Amino acid sequence: MKITLVSPSPHEWTIIGYGVRILSSCLKREGWDVNIFFFPRKIGTMYEEQAVSELVHLASDSDLIGISVMTDDYNAAVQLSKGFKARLNVPLIWGGIHPTIKPKQCLEHADIVCIGEGEEALPELVRRIKNDNDIRDIRGLWFNDNDRIIKNPLRPLIQDLDSIPFQDYGLEDHYMLIDGHIQKIDEEILLRTIGQYYLTMTTRGCPSKCTYCWNHTFNRMYPGENVLRKRSIDNVIRELVSVKDRFPFIKLFCIDDDAFFMRSLNEIKEFSEKYIEAGINCSLWVTGASPTSISREKVVALVNAGMNSIRVGIEAGSERIKKMYKRPYSNQQVEKAVQIINEFRDKVKEPQYDLILDNPWESQEEQIETLSLLAKFPTPYRLFLYPLTFYPGTDLYDKAKEDGFLLGDSDEMARKSHHSFKDTYINRLFVLLFKLALKGRRITPMVMALLTSPILMRLKISEFLYRVLELKYEYDQPMGKAILKGLKGMVTGEVIGSRPFLENKS
């Protein structure tokens, strides 16, 4: 049996493909022949026909083809599936978040969809195809059987994560779309595409109920089951040691869990101690932090192990908007978490904070609350700015449809750019804050109050001050020259420096 797995990704030059690498390892463990094709692209774009033709040709001897599909990948997956269907008579399965949330839609393009976790369902499917057994009753899979949908029940969530093999980084059967053509991945290409960085996950699931995130919907699919599952510390350390031994160029391990900091203090201490004992000697970038899950003791342990970057979800400064997002923490808790992280600024040089912009229910006054909160943060830090995106299956997706913010192709908004914001004065302040904070410069609370004063904004004085700050700090202009250029900008309507992040929408 030969299986082809395809990972379309809306991130150019990125071949992380965590899900397909795990599935490939599960299949190879049973002795099956697996090829992985990484097809990165710019979000919102489609593939050249030449690339699709090359992929179809290289997959022509497959017995099963699988595509990993997030919502951002939907259009690309449809394009690839049409290419396979037009030229090959091979079963096609989709898996991932989008098929789990919208299986009927996906069965318009695939023969089979995997709902939920696929580490057990996919190998069972392959075994049955190999043995010419009936496949239509496999739990966790839905089938398009001559336009009749067969809906099988879910499989239970995998509780023993240590039973899952590590990611497949076998270069002998991995390929990548580069400059419009498919090339076999070697160590040089791997180094170019992942750099000195390796991503893994130590937990699965998140018990939070964030209304913009699909995890809450996923949890509702498994009532009564334990959704937050953890790999043992020893299992995680074995993976990192094996990666470091195989790829000595790796200098940074990213633990990209949704809820890493929900591990207990004892677990985090155990991880940190064993990380040091193993002599891995790589920096750590840890995500999955919230203001309520951070403690000084946890940060101390991780910093001692080598953590030099942490990513924290802030999302908003308005209590009403945080309530809408179901992010139950106060701004005082946010400031306390930031203060804890700042104690270790000699090691954690650029902490990262996530924010959501372009919320249609958020008032300008509430946006200003967030700006005022950020003005209190010590620099340097990095802002991850995201426009609010209505992903299918989330509570805010349903609310957006009800309130008329999703019209026509209601999924199209879920496939917009992750880093393109409406061109408003307030959004320009967020972008300016991002640029200055990265350089270790601040917009003080007093200056922020001037920049966001309703009276000064109405008189356009705030915008003038913004232009002066942008010129003085971002472009290192002397104050007098900055004032003159700012005055010229007020007359001509120029906006300096912010366009790459903003789109022309009011």
Structure description:
Helix 14 (364-374) runs parallel beside helix 16 and helix 19 (461-474) crosses helix 20. The chain has 506 residues and is of the alpha/beta class. The chain contains 20 helices and 19 strands. 39% of the residues lie in helices and 18% in strands. The model has no long low-confidence stretch (mean pLDDT 90). The chain has 3 domains: 2-172, 3-Layer(aba) Sandwich (Rossmann fold); 196-388, tm_1862 like domain (pyruvate-formate lyase- activating enzyme, Alpha-Beta Horseshoe); 442-506, no CATH class. The strands form 4 sheets. The protein has a 9-stranded mixed β-sheet, sandwiched between helices. Strands 10-13-14-15-16-17 form a 6-stranded parallel β-sheet. The protein has a two-stranded antiparallel sheet with strand order 11-12.
Protein traits:
506 residues; alpha/beta; Rossmann fold; pyruvate-formate lyase- activating enzyme; 3 domains; 6-stranded parallel β-sheet; 39% helix; globular
Strand content: 15-25%
Q: So, the CATH homologous superfamily of the largest domain?
A: tm_1862 like domain
CATH architecture of the largest domain: Alpha-Beta Horseshoe
The outline comes out as globular
Poorly predicted runs of 5 or more residues: none
Order of strands in the sheet with the most strands? Answer: 7-6-5-4-3-1-2-8-9
- Top CATH class of the largest domain: Alpha Beta
Domains counted in the coordinates: how many? 3
Q: Number of DSSP helices? A: 20
Helical residues, percent: 25-40%
